[in-house]
UniProtKB/TrEMBL annotation:
Organism of origin: Modestobacter marinus
Protein name as it appears in the record: GntR family transcriptional regulator
Matching PROSITE patterns: HTH_GNTR (PS50949)
Signal peptide segment: none
One MF annotation (Gene Ontology) recorded for this entry: DNA binding
Domain of life: Bacteria
Keywords (A to Z) from UniProt: DNA-binding, Transcription, Transcription regulation
HTH gntR-type domain span: 13-81
SUPFAM superfamilies: Winged helix' DNA-binding domain
Record-linked Pfam families: GntR (PF00392)
Length: 125
C-alpha cells in the first residue's frame, strides 16, 4: 500500500514528527489497520527525500506509542489504533456499561450480576 505522506521542509515541525503524525492519523482513522505493513525505512526515506534516520525516528516514536511493532522478517507492522491505546480503566468502564445493559435487558437483579462479576474476578489470574 502506498502511504499518502508528505514532508514540508519549510515547516517548523521536524520531518520525523510530520511523518509520525501522518502515520498515526492513518492508523487512528482506520486507513491503516492492524497487521498492515509499513514501507521499509529505506523505501519511505527515498520516497520522501529524507534521511533514513528521520524515518527510523518516526517509526521508533510510533512503536513507543504502541501503534506499530518492528519485527524481523515482517518489517514494521501496525499493531493498533486509538482503541489499542485507550487506558485500561476506560475499556473496563465500557465493558461494564455493556454488561449492565445486558443484565437489565435480561431482567437480572443487581446482586446477581455483582455475584457473577465477583466470581469471574476470582477465577482470573
Amino acid at each position: 500500500m502506498a502511504l499518502d505522506i508528505a514532508v514540508d521542509v519549510t515547516s517548523p515541525t521536524p520531518p520525523f514528527e510530520q511523518i509520525r503524525s501522518q502515520i498515526a492519523r492513518h492508523v487512528d482513522s482506520g486507513l491503516l489497520t492492524e497487521g498492515a505493513r509499513l514501507p521499509t525505512i529505506r523505501a519511505l526515506a527515498a520516497d520522501l527525500g529524507v534521511a533514513p534516520g528521520t524515518v527510523a525516528r518516526a517509526y521508533t516514536e510510533l512503536e513507543a506509542a504502541g501503534l506499530v511493532a518492528s519485527r524481523r522478517r515482517t518489517g514494521t507492522v501496525v499493531t493498533g489504533g486509538r482503541a489499542a491505546r485507550e487506558p485500561a480503566e476506560t475499556r473496563v468502564q465500557e465493558a461494564a456499561g455493556h454488561l449492565a445493559r445486558e443484565a437489565r435487558e435480561a431482567g437480572m437483579e443487581t446482586e446477581t450480576v455483582l455475584a457473577i462479576v465477583r466470581s469471574a474476578l476470582g477465577t482470573v489470574r
